[in-house]
Amino acid sequence: MFRAEWVKLGRPRFFFGTLAAIGAVAALGAVxxxxxxxxxxxxxxxxxxxxxxxxxxxxxGLEAVSILLGVTALAVTAAVIGGDFTxxxxxxxxxxxxxxxxxxxxxxxxxxxxxxxxxxxxxxxxAAASFAIAPATDVGTAAxxxxxxxxxxxxxxxxxxxxxxxxxxxxxxxxxxxxxxAAAVSVGLAYALPLEMLVSRIWSPAAAWLxxxxxxxxxxxxxxxxxxxxxxxxxxxxxxxxxVLVAAGLFKHRDMTS
Length: 258
Fold this sequence. Notes:
Layout: H1 2-9, H2 12-35, H3 49-52, H4 60-64, H5 66-86, H6 89-96, H7 100-133, H8 147-178, H9 181-202, H10 211-219, H11 229-253
Helix pairs in contact: 1-7, 2-7, 5-7, 5-8, 5-9, 7-8, 8-9, 8-10, 8-11, 10-11
């Protein structure tokens, strides 16, 4: 099922189209972050060349657009899983391979691999764009390719990847629940973006418990957030396990009517 799913995910128009979009987002995040030197960021904090020249400065562009990488992962997984229900693909697959949980596991592993490829490409593009634009903004890059800088690149990559896989888990859940790509994508994005943001703005402590906000916190290494990195990671893990159990239960016991 892993290989079968990659036949669909690996179609050139879909694969390279998504790759190009992700690359453009990553490059934009890196360039805008470097160009923000001397100004204030979204939270009103002044951005300085000295701060960006720190070992973790090279990853700040990617972290700035991590939410866009996450919602892309959510949209892709929700559309793929929901589309399999709508187009009758799952029913045909189950006739040939009547092991529901193995089939779902193969699909999810293929989607996780796809998200990993996308985040890896985004990391490479963001780092390259940061190195390219930094001299024009007087941001030093010596610390970026030091041992500490390489460690920060690795940590930043893993944080963004984990957050994106968390968003993908939401996509799998809504895909199984709604069994329609349009409904799954629209509901998933509406929940992860405006709903959680609205709730957390009205009642700020909710941001420490809402899954999408926790994933954003984790992607940024919890820097500037009022929750510890380890606590955010643990809560995301609990949420993802619960989402997987619900999705697996529905997938196993629901009738495939289309």
